[in-house]
Description:
Residues 306-442 form the C-CAP/cofactor C-like domain. Residues 1-32 are annotated as: Disordered. Belongs to the TBCC family. The protein is α/β, with parallel strands linked by helices. The chain is 33% helix and 16% strand. The protein is built from 16 helices and 20 strands. The strands form four sheets. Strands 8, 9, 10, 11, 12, 13, 14, 15, 16, 17, 18, 19 and 20 form a 13-stranded mixed sheet that branches. Strands 4-5-7 form a three-stranded antiparallel sheet.
Amino acid sequence: MTEPTEPATSSPSPSPMGPTAPPRDPTTVLHPRREPFEHGLLPIPKLIFSDPTQTLIPLKQKLLEQSSNHRVDSAAIAESLQISLDHARLVLDTLSSVLPSDSEPLVTSKPGENDAVGAHVFDLVLFLYIQSYKKLLPRTHKDSAAVADVWPSTSAFDGYLSALSPLQLVRSNSRRFMPSQADEEAHQLSYLQKHLANILSLLAEPEEGEGEESLVLTMDRFEHLGFLVQFGDKGSDGNSLSQMSPFFANSDPDMPAVPVPAAQVHDWLLQNIASSLEHIAERTSSKENGPASASDQDVAMADACAVKVSTGTRGASFIEGISKSSYVKHASDIKGSSIKVLNCQESAIYILAPLRYATVYGCSDATIVLGAVGKAVRVEHCERVHVIVAAKRICIANCRECVFFLGVNQRPLIIGDNHKLQVAPYNTFYSQLEEHMNEVGILPTVNHWDEPLALGMVDHHDSLSHPAGVSDVQAESATRVDPDQFTNFLIPKWLGGESTGSTENNPFTLPDAYMASQHRNQKNLGEIRQLLREAPLEESRKRELSSALHVYFKDWLYASGNIRQLYCLQGE
């Protein structure tokens, strides 16, 4: 089979159905699983095939022959794909973060044990197939002048855009806004619709004959489609894919189900995808024709200054457009298991909750604290942002002048067009942090904050055209924050929510150099306080000294970005 043509549009045509059509049961609507498309794409050229099916079918057979239990480790992946061991381990780690089942051995394995468990071959080939996916381009705001007023860019880089590469110019021309959730879902469904026959051919096996007509799917192989699609909003928390299908719904668990012709599965899935695209078109059309809603995540931000804090229809919480203020969310405030922080600037944002996934996109001059993220964090198109997070893994893409204070169980991944990134060890805590980390499976004894892995500067999954030769350029990596410049970040107790937690200190051990620097700073502070108390100064001179110290402290607050922490003192 050959590579299908990529869908030209991201949204389906509106349905002729009128407003009197009965509402659909949400549990019967087929959705793409967003996680593989949002957190599972790796810009490694050797993983992107011009004809995925022709490459992956023999690769699948080779891997199955090498394994007695259908699982392969990073060495087998590296040898089969002709990639480095580091990249093969990255494939394993990334795959484990986007698998749908929490009972999958690769998901439950502890940090460093993924090789011992290995990836299931059928999950791996589906993961490799979707590396051909092309993401929607970020949208620009309809009123670019208004955005320019609200989103001033004062970076030192801004005066030198003429010296940047064409790729950098494309990415610097305007503030980026994520495509709407409806557009992304429609785009992902259209991709699956075009590629479905090829995807099924990777899972199917022949039965009594030759050719496509004889291909069948067992229930076990059918379940692997749950990597890409799900019914309803709950995903892995709901029914399995086979129980939602007409083929295996009433199968006796003690008896092997009869394999189903792949052609029947293909037709059934195509019918459900078409129905879902129609459902999205109806929903989008009704929102465009109806009054705007603050909770509508499928409509573009109406105003550059607007603030939207809401829960999307698929269980993700959104924080959008926070400006020059402080904002806090606790576990009880969040519906679902993922959060997206979008287009916030000059703010301090605290997400003190256990999460599975988190995305920070298009933010500038902000401090963002993410509690505990058990699957993956992605930070993209941000400028001069401080991100503090305890997470299983983090991916940083197309950011500049950002600092990341990390407690991460896997190596930070850096991709795209980045400038002047810095990493530092995790530097804060709140009372329920360790409880949240335990809940999502983050180990405080493992922290790879200072081992960033930089891939290519070009993301082959975007829809931009790239200048010749740029695809071979490696992304700029991150430097370590100087220990003498490292400071702890204090989350005010009144922002910490319920004080029922037991965490009283940073659960991640600081490296020796950073611990020694802190001790020196504390000692110096004590000595300065003692000198000031004992200084034989007249009252007028003491006032002058106090005023000078306040000026220097204020300058430090602005220069370090810590002025953002004071927004919480301003009141609402």
